[in-house]
Amino acid sequence: MALIRLSSPHVYKANSTANVMRLVLIATLPGILAMTFFFGWGTLIQIALACTLALAFEAAVLKLRKRPPGFFLSDGSALVTAILLAVAIPPFSAWWVTATGIFFAIVIAKHLYGGLGNNPFNPAMVAYALLLVSFPVEMTRWTSPMTQHGGGWEIAGFIDTLQVIFGSVDAGFYDSFTGATPLDVLKHRGGLTTEELWRQSDVLTNGVGAWYAVSAAWFMGGIFLLSRKIFTWHTPLSMLVALFLTASAFYGFDPDNYVNPVVHLSVGATMLGAFFIATDPVTSATSNKGKMVFGALLGVLIYVIRTWGNYPDAVAFAVLLMNLCAPFIDQYTQPRTYGHNRANRGMKGKNQ
Amino acid sequence: MSTVLTAVIVLFLLAAVFGIVLGYASVRFKVEGNPIVDQIDAILPQTQCGQCGYPGCRPYAEAIAGGDAINKCPPGGQSTIDALADLLDVEAVPLDAEHGEEKPRSVAYIREDECIGCTKCIQACPVDAILGAAKQMHTVITSECTGCDLCVEPCPVDCIDMIPIETTPNTWKWPEPPSPMQLIATDRGRGEAAAEAH
Amino acid sequence: MSKVFSFHGGIHPPGNKKRSTRAPIGKAPLPKTLMIPMQQHIGGPADPIVKVGDTVLKGQLIAEPISRISASIHAPTSGKVVDIAAYPIPHASGLSEECIVIEADGEDRWIEHQGLGDYTRLKRVDLIEHIRGCGIAGMGGAGFPTDVKLHLSEDHIVNTLIINAAECEPYITADDMLMRERAHEVLGGIEIIAHLLRPSHVLIGIEDNKPNAIHALESVLKHTELNIDMVVVPTKYPSGGERQLIKLLTDIEVPSGRIPADIGIVCQNVGTTAAIYRAVHFGEPLISRIVTVTGDAVLHPRNLETLIGTPFSTLLEACDLRPGALSKLVMGGPMMGVTVENDQIPVIKTTNCLIAATAQEMPEAPPAQACIRCGMCEQACPAELLPQQLYWFAKGREFDKAKHHNLFDCIECGACAYVCPSSIPLVQYYRYAKSEIRTEQRDQQKADHARLRFEARQARLEREAAEKEARRKARAEEAAKAQQQKTAAKDDTSVEQASAATAEPDLKQLKTAAAVARTKLKKAQKAYDEAAASNADNLAELEAALNDARSKANEAEKALTAGAPAATEGGDDNLKQLKVAAAVARTKLKKAQDALKNAEEKGLDGVDKLRTTVATLEQKANEAQQAFEQAGKATTPAVPEEKPAEVDIKALKQQVSIMRTKLKKAESALEGCEDETEKARLQVEADELKQRFEQATAEFDKAEQVLIERAANSGIDLKQLRIDAAMARAAVTKGERSLSKAESDDERSQIEQDLVAARAKAEELNLTLSQYE
After folding, report:
1. ipTM value
2. Which residues of chain C lie closer than 8 angstroms to B190, CB-CB?
3. What angle do CA A114, A115, A116 make, to 5 degrees?
4. What pLDDT, in 10s, does the model give residues C90-145?
5. pTM score above 0.80
6. Could you tell me which residues come within 8 angstroms of residue C520 by beta carbon, excluding any fewer than 6 positions away?
7. Which residues from chain A sit within 8 angstroms of residue B169, using beta carbons?
8. CB contact under 8 A, C368 and B180
C-alpha cells in the first residue's frame, strides 16, 4: 500500500496569499467609490490602466525570470500594487505618468529585488515617490473635488477625462478641473495664519469635505481588513496616534502656524497610508512590538515631512524611510519567547 | 616656516603617540598561538584520514591557514567546505575530486576469524580505535572509529571492511523541504511536481 | 473553580471529534500476529528477554529496560514469539527497529497477576518500582516513562499536579471517551500519583468541548477527599501542550530548557493515570490502550481498546475501511501526527489516534509560495517565536541565527504552518533545522573526541620516538667517548706531566673556563638546531662554530679533569714546599759548586772547606729532590704498588746522572789541577765519585730490571685495569646523563658530587693505564 509520508501538520486553514490579496482589494472599494464620487472618472480610469499595465509587466517579468506566470499572477499582489498607486496619483495624470509608475513599481521595486516577499520597499510608494520627484507639477495638480465647485459645477465627464488622460491636454480645460490639495494650500500659505487660510481658501472651505469623506471611506476599508485579521491593529493605530499626538503638541503650542491634528488625520493620504500602505507586511516590521514602533515612527515622520519638508504630503517618503528601518526594528523588537526571561536583541554575530 | 615646523612636530608627536599605543597594544593584547588554525581545526571532521595530503586534520588546518585550498576534505564534504568558506570569508568551492569523494560515514569492521594478529592496522589507526596485540585477534572500538579507512590498506589479509553507518530512527534527519522553485516549474505540471518532490 | 489564564497564539482548527464519540469504546479484534517495537518512546530501548520460539502468556515481561529512562515491555496476548528482528515502526522516518513478533494463540491467557491491595501501606519506592515494572509510559505525547516522573518528588518540591485532559488535537477522542466511561479509573490513578508526589493541589485541565467527560469526572470527583480542581479551558489548539497547559492553569511559564518539575509542577496525561490505576489495583501491565480510529475513509469511526502491537490494518478493518478511499494514514492527530507508509505498522503505547483520511479530507498541501511576511504565523505561535524569521534562517542554513531566535523552544505544534497563507511547510523547516543542528553537534562531539584521541596518540608516538632517539644517542655518545678517551688518554699523561712539572693549574680558573665553554657549546647547539629547523642559509657556518665550540669545551673539560685530581688529592701545599726546598737546595748547591770551582781554579785555602760544603749541599739537594719526588708520587695513591718502584727508578736515574756529572766535574778538576798534592787528593776523590757513580748505575739498572719484571708480571692486572677504567668512564657518562635529566637542585648537586668522584676515579685509572701503555 503506497501512502505518502509528510511532515505534520496535515490540515491547513483555507487561507492563501491570493485570498489575502482579494480581501485587500475588496477593502479598497469604499475608498475607490468615494474618490470616484468626488473626483470623477479619473480614478477608475487610472485603476483600470494601472491594473492592466501591472498584470502585463508582471507577466513579462515572470516570463523573463522563467517563472510560471499563471501561478504568480494569481496571487493578486500586482493588482494591489496597481490600485494603491492608481489612487495615490492625481486622477487626471497623463497615461505615461501612470505607465512609468507601474513599470517602476512592478519591474524595478518588486521583481528586481526578487519578487513578492523579497522587496525591501513598498513598490507602490517607490513608484509614487519617483513620480513625485520626476513630475512635480503633474503630481501636485489634483482634481478639484465636486463639492468645491459649489452647487452648479459637475465633475468632468467620462469622455473628457479619457481625453485628458490619453489625449492632448487642453490647458484651459485641465486647469478648470484641477487645483491644489488642502495640504498644498496649507503648505504654501504665504504668511497667512491657519485661521485666515481656512477663511480665504476655497479649497479648504469647500473642498476639504470631499477629502474627509474619502478618508472615512479608506478608514472603513481598513476596519474591514482588521476585522478579517488580515493585519493587526498595531501599525495603523500607533501611526494615527503618533501623528495625532505630534500634531496636537505643535497645534497646542502655536495654533496660528500649525495645522489642526484632526485635519492631519483626515486629509491627504493619512488613512490610506495607515491601513493599506504601512500595513504591507512584506516591507514593515514583523513582531507586534516592532509594528508599534514602526507605526509610531511613521506617524512622527509624516508630520515632520509634511510640516517642514518640500512636498505637501509625506506618506510615501515616510513609508520608504521606515521601510529602510524595518529590518533594524525587527532586530531589536523580537518577542520574548515562552519560557525566556527576556527577549533576544540584535543579531548573533558570526563568530560569537 | 614656523607652521611647517609645527606641522612636522605635531605629526611627529602623533606618530610617536600612535606608535607607543600600537606597540603597547601589540604587547598587551598579544594573541597566543594561531587561533585561526584552531578554528579551522574545529571545523574539520577530525577523521585524521590524510586524504587531503596532510598527516592529519591539524596539519591541514595549518595548511589552510597558510593559504591552501579548502576543498580537500572528502569526509567533511560540502558542509565543511561551506563552514570553512564562511569562517575564512572566501568563496565556497566544490570538493576537489582529486582527494576523494564524499562518502557516507562508515566504521571499520574486522572480520575477526580472518584476522592474523599482525598489529598493522593498530599502527595505522590515527585514533587508537583498534584493540588487540601481536598474534591476537584485533577488533575495532566502533564508538571511537572515525571511518578514515587508513586501516584497510595495511591489512595483509584484507579482513577489514568499511561498513556505512546505518541511519536509525534516533539519528534520522528530517529532510529539507523541497524548495518552492523546484516545486513549481511550470503552471501545468504543478500537482505532479509537488507529488514527485515528496 | 480555578481561574483560567491564557497563552499567546493558538489556532482553532475544525475539531472533527464528534464522529468518533458516537459509539462506546469497543474492543479491537485480536490480530494473528503482533509486533512490539522495543523502543516506543524517548529514552533507551528495551532489551528482549525472550527467544524466538518461546511461548509467552498475556502480560508476561518480554523485554527489560536497559537504562534509567526506558520502560518494560510485556506480551499483549498469549502466544509464541516467532521473530525478533527489525520491522517498520511508527516513526516519522519510516525506518525499521527491533520488534518482537508474537503469533497469538487466540486464547488470550493471562499470566498470574494481582493488584497491590492497599497501596498506601507500601513504601513509595516499592510502589514506583511496581509501576515501572508494569511498563507505564506517558500515553499522551512523547511517551516519557512514568516512573521517572513519579520519582521527581525526591529532588524537587512538587506542589502542583496537573492532569492533562485537554486533548486539544482535532479528531482525537481517546481521552474523552476514557473519561466518559472510566472516570473512576482516572480518579483512582490521580489518587495514586497524588499519594506518590504529595502535591498541595491537583488541577485537571480539560477543554470545554468535552461536556460529557467533564460531567463524568465531576460526578466521581464528589467522592474523593483530594483537593482536586477541574479547570475547563476554552478550546484552542495547542492547549494540551504541556507548557501551554501549565501557562493556562497557573500562569507560570516553564523556563526554556527546563522541565516543569523545576517549577514544582508535574503533568500527567489522563490515559496514563488510568494505566497506573490498572497496574496498581489489578497488576495489569500496560499492554493495551484506547485508540481513536477515525477519518473519512472509515465508515464507523470509534474508539477501540487495542493491544499494543496490533497492526493498523486490523483497526482499519474493524472500523470498516472504505476501499480505495484512503489516501493518507496518520498516526496521532492531524496537527502533530506522523504519516505512515503502510498499514502493517503496529500500535504502540503512544498511539492515541489513527486517522484514515481521504484525499478531500487532507488534501495535498498546495505548493509553497513566497513568504510575504504577513505575520500570521507569529500571531499563531504558542511559544511566541518569530516563525517567519526561523523559516528564513532554516532555509538559508543559518542555523546559528535560528538557534539564537530560540528555534529549540519550538514545540512543532504546526500552528504556524496551519495558518500560513503561502502554504510553506514551516514545521518541516524547523524539524530540518533542528535535526541538522543536532547532527552537527553530534558530529562536533565526535570530532572533538577523535581530535583528543588523535592528539593523545600523537603525543604517545612522539614520546616513544623521543625515548628511542635518546637511547640511540646515548649509545652513540658512549661509543664516541670511548674512542675519544682512548686517544685522549695518551695526551692526558703528557698534560698531566706538564702540569705537574710546570706551575700548578688553577682549578677554579679551569672550572670557569670549562663552564663558559659548555655554555658556549649549548648556545651554539641551540642556534644550530634553530637554524636547522628553519632551514637557514648559514647552517654550514653555524655548524663550524658549533664544532669549534665543542672542541673548545672538550679542551676545557680536559684541562679541568687533568687539573682536578692533582688539586683534589690534597697534599698540594706540601708538594709545593718540597719543590721550593728542592729548588733552593739546587741553587745553593750550584752556588757552592761555583765557589768551589772558583776556589779550585785559584788554588785558594778554603777549598777543602768549600768542598765539604758542596758535598753536604749536594746531599741536601738530593734529599730535597727525593722528598719532593716522593711526595709527588704519594699524591697518586691509586697506584700504590707500582708507585714506589717507579719512584725508586726515577730517583736512581737522577742519582746516576748526578754522579756522572760530579764525576766528570771531578775529572775535569783533576785534569786542570797543577798542584801535585792537590791532584792526588782530587784523584782520590774522583775515584771515590767514580765508584759511587758505578754503584748508582748498578742500582738503577737493578731497579729498572725489577720494574720491567714486575710490569711483565702485572700483565693480567693491566687488563683488569683497562676494564676498570672503561667502567669508570661509563659511570661518568651515566652520571652526566642523570645530571642532565635531574630536575630538582638537591638531586642535581648529589649527582654532581657523585660525578666528580666518578670522574676522578676514571682519570686515575686512565693515568695508571697510560703508564703501562
Report:
1. 0.83
2. 367
3. 130
4. 888 888 888 999 999 988 889 888 888 888 888 888 898 899 889 898 887 777 88
5. no
6. C549, C552, C553
7. none
8. yes
